[in-house]
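Summary for the funding panel

The consortium committed to producing paired sequence-structure records for every protein in the target list. Below we show the first two records in order, beginning with the earlier of the two.
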Amino acid sequence: MRTLVLVAANLPENFGVPLLMQVERGSSQLATVEANIFICDRLVERLLNRPDEVTATGELPSLYRTYLFDPGIPVWRRLGRVLGFVSRLGRENTHPTEYQAFSRIARMAVDATAAPGLTATDLAQACAFVVGGCDRYMFNATEQGIRRFFQNPERQAFGRVVERLEGGGTLEHDDFTLFLQYAGTLYNGDVEYHLSHLMFVMSALNDAERTIVFWRECFERLGDDPLPVAVDFLQAAVIYMYLVTDRPYDGILEPYIRKVLRDWPSGLLYRPGEERGFRRGYRDRFDMIFEDGFGVIYGHAQLAPSTRRRTMRYQQYVDSFGSDERTSNLLLENLNCFLQGGMIDESLQVLQAICQVATFWPYEGLALLQPVLGHSDPRIHRATVRVLAEVYHRHPRVTQRFLRSNGSALTEEDLREIKVRQDPRIGRRQIDELEWGHLLHFLLGLPNARQSLYAAIKALLRAESLEQAFVAVAVALGLHAEIGRQ
């Protein structure tokens, strides 16, 4: 089934999307997830190339309607499709005219999908689906870790933070002490970790400047030998805050990442995939590390391209890559340095970060691969092919263009591996901070969104089980078909 998904993903959209929709209706959760990822890729590409077809008339083109309003699947799965689509674009990776077209589709889809509400059966099925892929939806999550949250007597400490934020306040010194209990380790708080990020977002919505000052103070409190997970947590907090508040990126992360690359080799080489990769189904050490996706140097490169992108319409942006300008040159600079010094492990960590960048910024990400094309070290070569395979399946036209210009250093066997043989395991990828940030930004723009979100957070904190939480949050958001909002 997953082979069919990879084949369909490379067909023209009018053929590939209907075929992927048939796969999406099947029983394989991994194939379903991957089919949805590829469909959203194609719809986003179409939107960026033809935004006027959305804004020119009052109706959506049939391809969007077929996917987003599919009556042949339960409401909860339709809502999942819509949210997956909404997560792809934000104001930082579109021109204002493109975001206008995108938000029109998204608003129509959210309104139409949410209107019927979710039944008890919908909520039970959605809960089981999330649990079945929990490490995709939540950082490092396990079912056991999620359920542990509902037995954690300390979680009510978050309630006091929520009350202050709901009253218009911002985060304070002791709040980070609370967050660090869960944000400094891989094993102590699956739900609490994400709840802490949400507190940063709500604080920034109240007072962005004050919250960013607080964020800087938090980073300083980590000291000269910080916990890698805490560094990753704070990087992600910046991405969330900047996206949700629509704050233009000002390079805030660059000095911190330069310090990691220059002065903190143990942090750069921290590889939790060696600990948790086996649990996620990997047996090969390279796969355990590279597929894990954890890193402490990607944040700046994820946000830096937005400075240029949001000033250009898509075709102008694409055409601009004939120049030598590189918005992610921090990674390129250090990759070259590590390669010249024979520092293969460090180079692999940079390549892992480039893979994350290339998923959302394929033109920038692929340009950063030029120093490693045809590299003699087998691990560097394997990582390069692995990155190209993922970007090829996510962005086939962009990758083909890159390979036509730069592929002479690759063999025919490499190209077959990239296009056919390599399984990029896209369905196992954790949902990125950019995706969650886009989703939060859009949803918080809906009527009464902040009030509803606070109600949902408090319902989560009161719930005594995961299943109860699904129902309580649906009620708080006005999504329960049988109870309605209370």
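The next record, for a separate protein in the list, is shown here:
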Amino acid sequence: MKCVIWEMMMMPSSDIIALTFQLGEQQYAITLDHVVEVNAMVELATIPDAPAEILGMANRHGHLIPIIDLRQVLGMSPLPVGLNTLFIVVQYGATLFGLVVDDVHRVEYLPSKQLQRTDGWGKYIEAMMSYQGGTMQFIGLSSLVARYAGTFLKAEGL
């Protein structure tokens, strides 16, 4: 699957349309073409032998999708999960899953010319840019899918 952010970086005058969100004090983004919806937490079914960051399976319109705690994936301490916890349903190729985040901000048009690739800087961060006096980090969904593919397949068999 192609890296959408890399393709957008190559277009000098284009904007990237992204859903922005927060984990701790850090701002993150996912390109909008991968975002399906934002949901409040629902009851989760457990996945036997799944890594700790896989919180369980959510029923989304009759289909089970794995829910991943993005804080834990990125090496942060987990926060308690409750009914007010938000998760972003994303699709990468044929894979649909949810990412638990601290807060969802908004859809923004971000200038692609400000993006910098992060090759080798972080396993799950695809690009970064200066943003409101700090940085905005773009989540690399391909890395997440590659890391958790076995869990996703196991979950589909439930």
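Regarding this second record: The mean pLDDT is 87. Helices lie at 4-9, 70-73, 141-156.
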